[in-house]
Amino acid sequence: MEGGGARVSPMACGARRHKALAPWRFQSAFVRRETNPGVVFDGDLCGSETLQMSCDTAAGGGLSDSLSHGGGVDGELEVPACDGDNEVPKGCGGGGGVGGDCGLDGVDGDLVAKEGDLAAKEGDSLPKDCGIHEGLENNGITAEPLGAKPSNLPGLNCNADAEQSNFVGKDCNLEGSRTGDDAESNFVGKDCKLEGFRTGVPGLRKGRKAVAPWRFQTGYKPKWAQDSLSGNRSGETEESALTVRDGSSKRAPVMASNRPHLKGSASGGQRSLKVQKGTGPAPKKMKVDKDDHRISLVRENVLTKLREFRIIYKKLLEEEEVKCRGKGHGVRPDIAAFDIFRERFSADKYDMRYDGSIPGVRIGDVFNSVMELSVVGIHRAQSLLVDHIKKKDGTCLAVSVVSYAQPYAFDSLDVLLHVGSVAATCDQKLEGADMALQESMDTDTPVRLIHALVTELGDDCRPKQLTTYVYGGLYLVEKFHREKTAGGQYVNTFHLRRMEGQKQIGIQVLKTKKPESFDGTFTVDISGGLEKVSVSAINSISNEYLMAFRYISQIQYPLKYRPDPPSGCDCVGGCSVSQKCACLVKNGGEFPYNDIGENKEERPLIYECGPSCKCPPTCHNRVSQHGIKFRLQVFKTNSMGWGVRTLDFIPSGSFVCEYIGELLKDEEAQKRNNDEYLFGIGKNYHDVPRWKAWIEIIPSLQNGPSEDDENGFVFDALNQGNFARFINHSCTPNLYPQNVLHDHDNISMPHIMFFAYEDLPPLKELSYDYNYEIDKVHDSDGNIKMKPCFCGSTECTGRLY
Length: 801
Ligand SMILES: C[S@@+](CC[C@H](N)C(=O)[O-])C[C@H]1O[C@@H](n2cnc3c(N)ncnc32)[C@H](O)[C@@H]1O
What we know:
Strand 7 and strand 8 (about 490-500) form a beta hairpin. The protein folds into 2 domains: about 10-55 and about 185-230 and about 520-555 and about 560-770, SET domain (Beta-clip-like); about 70-150 and about 250-520, PUA domain-like (Roll), CATH 2.30.280. It is built from 17 helices and 22 strands. It is about 20% helix and about 15% strand. The strands form 5 sheets. Strands 1, 2, 3, 4, 5, 6, 7 and 8 form an 8-stranded mixed β-sheet that branches. It is of the alpha+beta class. The protein has helices at about 10-15, 25-30, 45-50, 60-65, 115-120, 160-170, 225-230, 235-250, 285-325, 335-345, 370-375, 430-440, 505-510, 580-585, 665-670, 690-695, 700; strands at about 110-115, 365, 385-390, 395-405, 415-425, 445-460, 465-485, 490-500, 520-525, 535-540, 550, 605, 630-635, 640-645, 655-660, 660-665, 680, 715-720, 730, 735-740, 750-755, 765-770. Helix 4 crosses helix 9 and helix 6 packs across helix 9 (about 285-325). It binds S-adenosylmethionine.
């Protein structure tokens, strides 16, 4: 129901949903009914149990505690194989996560020590009071340089794409200022909070364009889709994303390309290494605003990513710990949980590494574990202190170093010493991480420095250590020594000098850094196993869980409307044009899908092969009937309630999901109090200008339901349905609903299958056009109802209806 007991018209909503539903007839014809503001849903909530999760502990703080036994770089550590691999040693003990115990790079003891311990004190002194905030900062821009250096190093994969995807996917998420008017209320399911309608109608921006416009003409590629394909869809968000990629090369002043070359030497001169500020004329005001916006979007993306990781990881860790307790020894629960996270819930599976600062990560940011360093991309070699990338010529370049030098041991962070591998014999050469560090030194490539801070917890009986990680900024490898130990081994020591011009971080501040604490909610699979690919739900904004509804993954036809099974084709080995396939004829002589199962073009109706066909399940005319194949996630948006986003890349034309709900007659739908999840079906075949050519060749459309047929059907996903009920509206949608028949031939009740209009990167919010007609939705008094649209598109008309 609308906030404040507003009245809704089920049919108005149902009719709007399908693009070519001639919605005007329905929207104007129905008077809104009074809704019952106090209605409590107590129906068959089989999904409610699965949808609930206890949220008794904080994710952030609790997480760090849980990680203290294993989050650090500890246990058996390997000499880097110089291949960029990120293997976590499974046999790691539950140590303190401290470098002191680990054999990383073959070195014992603290790997990074104060310069003064081995050499004369040097470096610039730091200002005593540096304004570092606790935890991750949410707003504003720091003076730190922006932009990872792009992969101009041969053979390197730049992460810019991943970053771009992430924050492009959140464009609706970032309408932070609008969340204020979300008066979230609705009925309450068993143990559930739910959200729904909004009160208040902000000023309308502009009139809505006509329904069923050019955008839906066959073969026409709308401008925004073209832009998107060329990597520049529209608006600041998209441009911002691009700028991240491009800007990283233009704006990576930290890179040493024009710094004096620094060779390894024992001299240890007091050199100033500056982070260069951008040169050239000052940008115009507009540009600055855009940049500010972009920077905060990128930052927001990093924060969201980290928050979401903490929420999911906490949940998985709890489960893994329970399993481990049952089984005794086995894989460390934190590692198991992280593996599950990466496999099932991470959109960034590829572990790309890159050099320079990471867009959105700020000096002073605090992390709970090496896994979190990996999630945001500042250090991806979880078991190693030095992370590196491999160049095309086979050489490795160090890009980040985790330093276990504890702040109490020194008074300046300007110069740190990293002790590398201990060579087993006198003859052994510089290798692995050491060689990568030397290469960074030779090429003046800055490395990211992460301080690992160890706190002793527990007591004598149960000693425990908590390690937190603080990003310290960019350092240059200034020089290195090889020193022979008493045992005849060589120790490689590297001097790292902090680059100037970066935000300062004081030792005192470093000591007091604490990770952010955050709750949020996470459900591993809202379908309870009914979907082939699990559909998780995450809320990183509040502690609400999804509202209760009964999850169904297939349309359940009421007995009275149950359609007859369709006639089938006789293509034993698979359907083809040459076999004169009966389904081909039903489709107007052309199969709808290409060889890889993509819909060639939007059409009024698709006949897939069905249960009576003799072709196998692998027939290329069976696509959407097989269910979802991409990983998708329900997530809480900032301004539109829950939404659905991708976790995988989805190519244009791919089947994404079906809209599933209760099948109702139009008149039954009108009696429903809540119209939020209605989807009108089976009435769009006679949009002649749009489908003329198809109507002429698809036999069933020549005498299908008439345009005036009022006895159509509606899906209502309010009480039962699948995750598609959470897909929001956008004025520039990336999905289109396609009528498909496969298990029956009744064109009045087609399946509504969503296909991708365009290539969808991971973390992109899914959307379709709800197809409301503006000013055609009325309340019971006949007043026009208005609802603002928060889709965030540059083409947004400002109103949902
Ligand atoms: C089918 S539901 C979509 C899922 C919904 N967001 C939820 O949390 O359950 C439709 C409702 O979502 C909200 N919604 C969807 N798209 C929107 C948009 N572009 N702007 C504002 N609200 C939107 C409206 O409240 C709408 O009535």
